[in-house]
Amino acid sequence: QVQLVESGGGVVQAGDSLRLSCAASGLTVRLYGTAWFRQAPGREREFVGAISWGQGSIYYGDSVTGRFTISRDNAVNTVYLQMNTLKPEDTAVYYCADPKNVGSALGRDQNGYEYWGQGTQVTVSS
């Protein structure tokens, strides 16, 4: 049974940093790749970034490029999202997601992902 568990969310002030974790069980993130999405109240789920399987190519959504960094620790089967220079508009529930199959190309469409975590709330005050 696949399980993704996000942690690390909280309430911070604008300009602060947070690091989110996505701990996986039931699959090997190095083989699947992992994406991060976020969803603010009343808005559609937004692609934040992804780290591909294998060597781990990384790419980001336009709104977070230069501020957020994705990394992976294969030894503990965990993917991280380091968020710096946070803004109030970064307030959202953050989710990690994995595709259904090993070696899948990771896209920006949430429909391309089979497994999701429960989400972790990030609130950035001005």
Helix tally equals 1
Task: Give the terminus-to-terminus CA distance.
Answer: 40 Å
Radius of gyration: 13 Å
Instruction: Tell how many strands the DSSP assignment holds.
Output: 11
Q: Overview of this structure, please?
A:
It is a single chain. Strands 2, 4, 5, 6, 9, 10 and 11 form a seven-stranded mixed beta sheet that branches. Strands 1-3-8-7 form a four-stranded antiparallel beta sheet, with no helix packed on it. The chain is globular, with a radius of gyration of 13 Å. It has 126 residues and is mostly beta strands. It has one helix at residues 29-32; strands spanning 3-7, 10-13, 18-25, 34-39, 46-51, 58-60, 68-73, 78-83, 92-98, 115-116, 120-125. It contains one helix and eleven strands, in the order βββαββββββββ. The mean pLDDT is 96.
In short:
The chain is mainly beta. Helices cover 3% and strands 47% of the residues.
Topology:
Blueprint: E1 3-7, E2 10-13, E3 18-25, H1 29-32, E4 34-39, E5 46-51, E6 58-60, E7 68-73, E8 78-83, E9 92-98, E10 115-116, E11 120-125
Parallel strand pairs: 2-11
Antiparallel strand pairs: 1-3, 3-8, 4-5, 4-9, 5-6, 7-8, 9-10, 9-11
